[in-house]
Write a structure and sequence with these properties.
This protein is α+β, with helices and mostly antiparallel strands. The chain has one domain: PH-domain like. Helix content is 30%, strand content 37%. The protein has helices spanning 9-28, 32-48, 142-151, and strands at 2-4, 50-55, 59-64, 69-72, 76-81, 91-98, 101-108, 112-118, 125-129, 134-137. It has a 6-stranded mixed β-sheet with strand order 5-9-10-8-7-6. A 4-stranded antiparallel β-sheet has the order 1-2-3-4, with helices on one face. Helix 1 (9-28) runs antiparallel to helix 2 (32-48). It starts with a strand and ends in a 5-residue tail after the last helix. The relative contact order is 0.19. Pfam families: bPH_5.
């Protein structure tokens, strides 16, 4: 099943403000190198934004416009819904912090280093891989996603 990845209120506000700010800077203060940098930044963020999450027999797929992320189910040690307080205080070490969501490398004292593919921060799902890497995702229907993942019976 495919699960939507809609933006939370904060991401919508940040995305709208950045869109207006970038647009104003390009239109009212046109400097070609600046315009190119702003447009490239915006385009890269848009292309890497999580669009949806999908569970298949063999994989968990994070759909994006540019190169979806495929995680083999056999590589996943655990997957669970966590409280949003577990990610509060996280620091972005390399990534995007609000423009079309939160994605890239993040860290905090409680969970350590993580890779986020998040569009909403109210019901995060923590994936711990067998190699100890941590991934955070945020499907709109988080509880249903976890239930489907845990209850998925591969076809023999």
């Amino acid at each position: 099943m495919i699960y939507k990845a809609s933006l939370d209120k904060t991401a919508v506000i940040i995305t709208n403000i950045v869109t207006l700010l970038f647009g104003a800077l390009i239109v009212f203060n046109f400097i070609l190198p600046l315009a190119i940098i702003l447009l490239l930044t915006y385009l890269i963020c848009l292309l890497l934004k999580p669009l949806s999450y999908e569970i298949t027999e063999d994989e968990l797929i994070i759909r994006r416009l540019l190169k979806s992320v495929h995680i083999n189910r056999s590589d996943i040690e655990s997957l669970k819904l966590i409280d949003k307080s577990a990610i509060s205080g996280s620091i972005r070490t390399f990534g995007v912090g609000g423009l079309f969501g939160w994605f890239g490398k993040f860290a905090n004292t409680q969970l350590g280093n993580m890779t986020w593919y998040v569009t909403r921060r109210d019901k995060p799902i923590l994936i711990i891989k067998k190699d100890s890497k941590k991934i955070l995702i945020s499907p709109d229907e988080a509880e249903a996603f976890v239930a489907e993942f845990k209850g998925f019976k591969p076809i023999s």
